[in-house]
């Protein structure tokens, strides 16, 4: 009694028989289904922009933005081949739009964010208003809002796309449709949303109608200026430097309900404390060079590089001569809404 029995063959035969009835034994899967700590197939990885850029530009000779709808190279996590995912819940890609091109208008339940990587003068239109892009700008496309991109400028423009595609796939709640017009009609002047909702003012009769921020463009010049002012103070966080989150100014909550977005300034000569959290996070380098150690592996980064830190893996930043500015995004708001999010500072 109560001793494990050596009946492998009988068990395997039993599993095969119950398998035909749509059943499978929990006891063979228990530790994978209910792990003591997160067990992710997501691996740490860094994409060097200089190495990726030639292939991205080559895509511009093979297909137009119009035909592609979105000309994007997906940044797929090497630990999750075939998933089109950079973490279990997030998608990332580099989108290229050449001078004169239009990426046609559509909408979908997936939320998108953009962080402008290279070039300027292209635009994203959201809900009838265009936002002109400059390197480092952060732009959101809330769920189910019409959006199209165009490049009336002289130079190619590249941005990092972050979407909650895997999350929406997980919930099986994806819907999409094309706009009847290739470019949606412009109904509001550029800067309208910023003036209406992003100037520490709100229209007197404002009532929130959606989870995402009505401010959809967060120019880098503004966030850089804020970080610059913070950098003049004395203390920085021992793990993050100065890390700020992009907010919905009408709620004080995250700019998007499904994705948290952050920007941080790290001083030169920083040797950061290790930190981990359950939201696997995608980082985009805006300025400066440095290194990140993720679960003991070192990745050197420079401007425009992208890297991913999987859930619960300790990471720390090390910089030498450069001040560094990093953008990042994760599924933190979802985990927090579900009371699942955890973090740990490892001194
Ligand atoms: O710009 O609308 O990278 O719909 C993937 C899906 C970008 C976009 C992506 C999209 C978009």
- Side by side, the strands of the main sheet go 1-19-16-21-14-13
Q: Label the overall shape.
A: globular
Tell me which CATH architecture applies here. Sandwich
Number of domains: 1
C-alpha termini separation: 48 Å
Largest sheet descriptor = 6 strands, antiparallel
Strand content: 25-35%
What ligand molecules are bound, each kind once?
A: 2,5-dihydroxybenzoic acid
CATH superfamily: Jelly Rolls
Total helical elements: 8
Give the proportion of residues in helices.
10-25%
Order of helices and strands: HHEHHEEEEEEEEEHEHEHEEEEEEEEEHE
| Gyration radius, in Å | 22 Å
Summarize the helices and strands and which ones pair or pack:
Blueprint: H1 8-19, H2 30-33, E1 45-47, H3 49-62, H4 65-68, E2 72-74, E3 91-97, E4 102-108, E5 112-118, E6 123-126, E7 129-132, E8 138-141, E9 147-150, E10 157-163, H5 165-171, E11 176-178, H6 192-197, E12 217-218, H7 220-231, E13 242-245, E14 260-266, E15 274-277, E16 281-287, E17 290-294, E18 297-301, E19 306-309, E20 315-318, E21 324-330, H8 332-337, E22 343-346
Bound molecules: 2,5-dihydroxybenzoic acid (GTQ).
2,5-dihydroxybenzoic acid (GTQ) binds next to strand 3 and strand 10.
